[in-house]
User: Fold this.
Amino acid sequence: MTVRPVAQALRDAGLRPTRQRLSVLQSLRDRPDAVTAQDLHAELRGAGASIGLTTVYRTLTALADAGLLDVFTRDSEQAFRRCGTVHHHHLVCETCNKVEELSAAEVEDWVHHAADRHGFEVTGHRADIFGICSECR
Amino acid sequence: MTVRPVAQALRDAGLRPTRQRLSVLQSLRDRPDAVTAQDLHAELRGAGASIGLTTVYRTLTALADAGLLDVFTRDSEQAFRRCGTVHHHHLVCETCNKVEELSAAEVEDWVHHAADRHGFEVTGHRADIFGICSECR
DNA sequence: GCGCCAGTTGATAATGATTGTCAAGAGCAT
DNA sequence: ATGCTCTTGACAATCATTATCAACTGGCGC
Ligand SMILES: [Zn+2]
Ligand SMILES: [Zn+2]
Ligand SMILES: [Zn+2]
Ligand SMILES: [Zn+2]
Assistant:
């Protein structure tokens, strides 16, 4: 019941729903924070799962390429998070790494106006807010 | 004449204006793009300057810490650019790495409203637009 | 149910950017 | 000039990430 949609998400991404991939996507779906490949590997191992570090890296990268995960750069390492598939921005807690997804029409407008004004063809944009969440204060 | 203000900027940052630091800051002041430590080192060497890679790394990091440079993450490496000291955002060309500085009141408003709405205490934010500049098209 | 085979895994080695080390060198105040 | 502290740079060490490649597995055809 809880594994079904996860397996389907993998299939849709052209990835076989293996035990390892399921455990990665599974553990990612219920957490609100962004996590590092190294950290996730340690947690999965600590929870008794059998999975190699290389596989965690590969799975996270594949899922990110498929658009299922968003990538954050934290202290020169990459952290991943299961985010919605529609365009959004982020509000990130620098203490617990929790991420809130935000939509912002004013930002989208700004992006296009600014790019037009400078003769740029937009290929993408990113707008993230960093702070401390109420629980961490 | 052209070296005077650069030397002063270094002093203001609590750094001795050495030959190496001057050449780094100097070469950064007239370029519109963000550059990597490795690339800058190669360019300086190619231009006949004598400077070690370690020093380039250290200088760029020190200048960034002092607020004189902005840091960009490009393909998991750091690129630096001499930006203005007042808060701004970026319009980055993904082909030539040229950067335009942008100010955006609507973004600033969004930042504070969104953070308030979610009970976050803001520590910072970043809003960058990626695209292709008119010259690169 | 079984065999096949392309897709996956994971221990290990390799990569490559960045940082640590430390002896030699260079600002700058006296 | 002298001294003292800050700086440099060749070199070694880190460390996250990626490449290898032989062993393993999911799922389709039989
Ligand atoms: Zn928090
Ligand atoms: Zn947006
Ligand atoms: Zn360009
Ligand atoms: Zn801003």
User: Anything to note?
Assistant: The first helix of chain B runs from residue 4 to 12. Residues 15-16, 18, 20-21, 51-55, 58, 76 of chain B lie near DNA strand D (CB under 10 Å from a C1'). Strands of chain B lie at 35-36, 69-74, 77-82, 89-93, 99-102, 121-132.
